[in-house]
């Protein structure tokens, strides 16, 4: 079974996105970057964790833009030599056919890009030209044999553009499309999406996904947001198994289940979208000890104020990061959950 490590090797980036949790509160933030010695030590710590718990590591290597790290290609050689597959999460600006061929050879399985609305909106979020560069990069990634992924962050600023965005990426034959929600982080965006408005988006997207699948579309539409579980349950597409074990988690938020984040400064976070969720230091602490120590607090699912009493809690739990960013508590109700 794979274990996901969202590994930020640098904060260095070509963009200053309005919803970025790295630069949200201070546009002149000091850029942290791991040294090669720190990268090697981090990888050894990850390997030790996976050997201890008999898990297969799947790093999600990111930044900033990871390709801007001075030792990026050295890390790619390390991944290749270790025979480990991984995902890269970055920008489109440095991707060429030659670069993507090298990434595929190194073991990169997927390359994730971001699109946050149609051209005007996306370029406002990020920078002029980013929308077209991202669409063009989908084809570059596909030609290499890697899986292209487009992830969108939904806020009140762009929620009405998501259906059109789906059409745009399908036209470019993206491999995977998914969206999650904006976590309020001091960036000044309007996060106030009403619950029923968000449910309407899920309904619109479900119908669009269904039509595309019936037409033979090869894009995989990932239901990443955990409120999809609530939507599917209400629509009769999901039933609670009769043999479900009470208290056992089967899906939903990965925090405390199969995910850790490591920052360029060496912090280990329970959730990357919750900056004040430190559980250790990669240089000082053994990841295996963090998992059986501080991370235990994130596995007490009875602490969820609303979800703990919900019949689909083991498959949902909403997004605790959005709850934390909106209400100040990781365990407060998800602000977009419409279930009474």
Radius of gyration (Å) = 20 Å
Helix content: 25-40%
**SS strand fraction:** 15-25%
Name the average pLDDT.
Answer: 93
Number of helices: 10
Give the topology, please.
Blueprint: E1 2-8, H1 36-53, E2 56-62, H2 72-82, E3 86-89, H3 97-106, E4 108-114, H4 119-125, H5 130-144, E5 147-154, H6 162-171, E6 176-181, H7 195-214, E7 220-221, H8 227-234, E8 259-262, E9 267-269, E10 278-281, H9 287-292, H10 320-327
Parallel strand pairs: 1-2, 1-8, 2-3, 3-4, 4-5, 5-6, 6-7
Antiparallel strand pairs: 8-9, 9-10
Helix pairs in contact: 3-5
Describe this structure in words.
With 340 residues, the chain is of the alpha/beta class. It contains ten helices and ten strands. A ten-stranded mixed sheet has the order 7-6-5-4-3-2-1-8-9-10. Helix 3 (97-106) crosses helix 5. The chain is globular, with a radius of gyration of 20 Å. 43% of the residues are buried.
Structure in a nutshell:
33% of the residues lie in helices and 15% in strands. It is α/β, with parallel strands linked by helices and 340 residues long.
Q: Main traits of this protein?
A:
single chain; 340 residues; alpha/beta; ten-stranded mixed β-sheet; 10 helices
